């Protein structure tokens, strides 16, 4: 049974409601300075709590419990750059003493509009994150509805992923003084590995005899989708890794490092790459992740199927890989050429892409 108390504290000009449910005491500000108005608030609040019959929870308390719950199943990068950031911004927007049950569709809508006006992509990320969190809140019996599902985000513009060619990568490497970074950039270009995967890679993950790289989860590193995958090593990368292997001390060494035994910082590597891009006079939209797009785009242009690309990149869903579907230029050209060649007996003509071995040589 719930117990409610109206209290006036010296630390606040507003009356506070203290209530106890299931042995837990929680405080809620009435936002009222007079006792008469505070009593009216208390009456409405008691009716609301008794009507909903759900566990009252302040948003910041839910945040702590939710992040603790997903920390074992999601990467540290996702927690820091998506979940914690979305919660922090929403806390700043609504105030830290708000109850989950007091978060209305109007509040959620205004938060999305506010963030969308500043950064469209980030706003969509925050929306997905908070929507997922509130679905969990429903399962936990903290709210009855998910207010974030009612937000209709504007349709996003679909753009082709930016990629660079071999000669552009060569120019970037020429503007990079550090030899280990040149090899790192080339490694990412030839494997499609994510930056976090590259800087976490150790020699024990590389089998030069079988010419394979194992991107795997460990106690100190987790892949984005929590799944291990294998990336084949082509001829050029085999030569580079063989030369680098001569300098290694043990299989537990990092493949790429500035200071021996110390893992590279992802921000440091990204800034170094961006600095070289600027020196080359290339597009300011090119960043380290462009190397991953370049790998996928180039092998698809040379005949690799989207299913193969999905496995190489470690995508969990083929729909993510579909952004590279436009890169199969030869298929598109062949299809258009059929218009001029169209004959009744050739209506079932099969369109195929010519297979080309991908063999990149960067001097």
How would you describe this protein?
The protein has 363 residues and is mostly helical. It is built from 14 helices and six strands. The chain has helices spanning 35-52, 59-70, 76-94, 105-118, 120-139, 166-174, 179-191, 195-200, 235-245, 266-280, 290-301, 306-313, 318-321, 329-341; strands at residues 3-8, 15-21, 24-29, 206-207, 212-215, 229-232. Strands 1-2-3 form a three-stranded antiparallel β-sheet, with helices on one face. The chain has a three-stranded antiparallel β-sheet with strand order 4-5-6, with no helix packed on it. A hairpin with a 4-residue loop joins strand 4 and strand 5 (212-215). The radius of gyration is 28 Å and the shape is elongated. The termini are far apart. The model is unreliable at 342-363 (pLDDT under 50).
Number of strands: 6
Query: What radius of gyration results from the CA coordinates?
Result: 28 Å
SS content category: mainly alpha
Mean pLDDT: 83
**pLDDT below 50 for ≥5 consecutive residues: which ranges?**
342-363
Helicity, in percent? Answer: 40-55%
How much of the polypeptide forms β-strand, as a percent range?
Answer: 5-15%
Key traits:
single chain, 363 residues, mainly alpha, 14 helices, 8% strand
Question: In terms of topology, how is this protein built?
Answer:
Layout: E1 3-8, E2 15-21, E3 24-29, H1 35-52, H2 59-70, H3 76-94, H4 105-118, H5 120-139, H6 166-174, H7 179-191, H8 195-200, E4 206-207, E5 212-215, E6 229-232, H9 235-245, H10 266-280, H11 290-301, H12 306-313, H13 318-321, H14 329-341
Helix pairs in contact: 2-3, 3-5, 4-5, 6-7, 6-10, 7-11
């Amino acid at each position: 049974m719930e117990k409610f108390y109206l209290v006036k504290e010296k630390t606040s000009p507003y009356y506070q409601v203290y209530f106890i449910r299931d042995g837990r005491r929680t405080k809620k500000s009435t936002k009222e300075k007079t006792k008469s108005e505070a009593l009216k608030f208390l009456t409405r609040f008691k009716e609301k709590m008794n009507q909903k019959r759900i566990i009252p929870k302040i948003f910041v308390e839910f945040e702590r419990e939710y992040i603790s719950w997903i920390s074992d199943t999601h990467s540290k990068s996702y927690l820091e750059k998506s979940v914690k950031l979305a919660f922090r911004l929403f806390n700043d927007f609504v105030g830290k003493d708000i109850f989950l049950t007091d978060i209305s569709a109007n509040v959620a809508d205004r938060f999305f509009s506010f963030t969308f006006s500043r950064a469209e992509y980030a706003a969509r990320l925050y929306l997905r994150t908070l929507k997922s969190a509130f679905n969990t809140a429903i399962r936990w019996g903290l709210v009855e509805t998910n207010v974030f599902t009612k937000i209709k985000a504007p349709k996003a513009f679909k753009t082709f992923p930016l990629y660079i060619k071999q000669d552009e990568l060569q120019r970037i490497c020429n503007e990079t003084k550090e030899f280990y970074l040149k090899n790192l950039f080339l490694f990412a270009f030839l494997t499609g590995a994510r930056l976090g995967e590259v800087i976490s890679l150790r020699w024990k993950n590389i089998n030069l005899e079988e010419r394979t790289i194992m991107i795997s989860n460990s106690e100190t590193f987790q892949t984005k989708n929590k799944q291990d995958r294998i990336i084949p090593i082509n001829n050029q990368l085999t030569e580079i890794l063989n030369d680098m292997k001569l300098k290694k001390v043990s299989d537990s060494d990092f493949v790429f490092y500035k200071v021996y035994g110390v893992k590279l910082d992802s921000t440091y590597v990204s800034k170094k790459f961006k600095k070289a891009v600027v020196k080359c006079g290339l597009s300011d939209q090119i960043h380290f992740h462009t190397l991953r797009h370049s790998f996928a785009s180039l092998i698809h242009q040379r005949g690799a199927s989207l299913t193969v690309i999905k496995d190489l990149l470690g995508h969990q869903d083929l729909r993510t890989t579909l952004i590279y579907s436009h890169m199969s230029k030869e298929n598109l050209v062949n299809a258009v050429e059929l218009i001029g060649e169209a004959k009744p007996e050739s209506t079932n003509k099969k369109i195929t892409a010519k297979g080309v071995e991908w063999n990149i040589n960067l001097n």
